[in-house]
Write a structure and sequence with these properties.
Blueprint: E1 14-17, E2 23-28, E3 32-37, E4 43-47, E5 57-61, E6 66-70, E7 74-78
Length: 86
């Protein structure tokens, strides 16, 4: 078991595991979505809008290549580059 240190002091409001099980994402209000390596617990990158006051849903799709985050709308992000897809 790993203790996970997130990139900000905000609470984690959503967690999602990638389909392969190698990654997980933690969504934090006013910060974004941090992607973690599940084996080491190390943060790989932070994606998404830091202006979101909350997240109501989080899921990986397209085999883990994209992650969708719902709040006051829907963001679809590339998990490798962090680029907004839709």
């Amino acid at each position: 078991m790993h203790a996970i240190r997130t990139a900000s002091g905000h609470p984690v409001c959503r967690v999602a595991f990638s389909p392969c099980g190698g990654w997980f994402a933690a969504a934090q209000p006013h910060h974004g979505i941090t992607l973690f390596d599940r084996a080491s617990g190390a943060a790989a990158r932070t994606v998404g809008s830091p202006r979101r006051p909350y997240y109501t849903g989080l899921t990986f799709f397209r085999g883990g290549a994209w992650i969708a985050a719902a709040g006051w709308g829907l963001e679809v992000l590339d998990t490798v580059t962090g680029a907004l897809v839709a």
